[in-house]
């Protein structure tokens, strides 16, 4: 084989390998102080925000990760169940989330169970939305969100919010939607509260 052909084939193989390298590099992240383990597609960053509900300030800690242009996040919000009703907080969060995506189909509440990380594992009831439609900026989005309430062995109650969001400049093809949904399912399936 002549040297030029060898170099061209080598360059072609290198370009193909680089093009096929996914930006999704799934890794397990353990967040002890928030009581969960999650599967993120890239390095997670952390930030906090204050949410006011019924004249009570609640702190939500967000662990978030971006891969390509998709966002994956786990929000943890501790609350005192002697002061606030967890289901009331959840209902309020769901109502606000339902307004984020404009769609001709109203959001349908999904109910399911999430397996805990402990041994023996238990199952915690959860609920959520699979939304798709136009966001506030007029761009199409697929947005999945899940919520659950968990009180740990020490009596600390928390609301967990799992979010996966993929924006598109226009309505995506079935193939693009399927790829995003597979990534969302991987993320959602990798979450385990203590």
Descriptive overview:
The N terminus is likely disordered. The protein has 3 helices and 10 strands, in the order H-E-E-E-E-E-H-E-E-E-E-H-E. It is globular, with a radius of gyration of 20 Å. It is of the alpha+beta class. Strands 3-4-5-9-8-7-6 form a 7-stranded antiparallel β-sheet, sandwiched between helices.
Characteristic terms for this protein:
194 residues; alpha+beta; seven-stranded antiparallel sheet; three-stranded antiparallel sheet; 10 strands; 24% helix; globular
Summarize the structure.
By secondary structure, the chain is α+β, with helices and mostly antiparallel strands.
Main beta sheet strand tally, sense and closure = 7 strands, antiparallel
Amino-to-carboxy terminus distance:
60 Å
> Into which percentage range does the β-strand content fall?
35-45%
- Rg, rounded, reads 20 Å
Unreliable sequence segments? 1-22
What's the layout of helices and strands?
Layout (H helix, E strand, L loop, with lengths): L2 H18 L6 E5 L4 E5 L4 E9 L2 E12 L2 E10 L6 H13 L11 E6 L7 E12 L5 E12 L5 E12 L5 H16 L2 E2 L1
Antiparallel strand pairs: 1-2, 2-10, 3-4, 4-5, 5-9, 6-7, 7-8, 8-9
């Amino acid at each position: 084989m002549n040297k030029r052909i060898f170099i061209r084939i080598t360059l072609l193989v290198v370009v193909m390998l680089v093009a096929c390298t996914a930006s999704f590099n799934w890794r397990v992240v353990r967040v002890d102080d928030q009581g969960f383990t999650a599967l993120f597609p890239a390095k997670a960053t952390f930030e906090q925000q204050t949410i006011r509900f019924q004249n009570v300030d609640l702190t939500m800690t967000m662990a978030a990760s971006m891969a390509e242009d998709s966002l994956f996040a786990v929000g943890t919000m501790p609350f005192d169940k002697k002061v606030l009703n967890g289901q009331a907080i959840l209902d309020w969060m769901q109502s606000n989330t339902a307004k984020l995506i404009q769609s001709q189909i109203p959001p349908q509440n999904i109910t399911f169970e999430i397996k805990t990380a402990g041994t023996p594992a238990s199952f915690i009831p959860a609920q959520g939305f699979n939304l798709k439609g136009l966001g506030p900026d007029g761009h199409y989005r697929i947005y999945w969100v899940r919520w659950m309430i968990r009180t740990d062995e020490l009596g600390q109650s928390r609301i967990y919010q799992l979010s996966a969001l993929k924006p598109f400049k226009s309505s995506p093809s079935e193939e693009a939607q399927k790829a995003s949904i597979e990534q969302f399912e991987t993320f959602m399936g990798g979450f385990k509260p203590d």
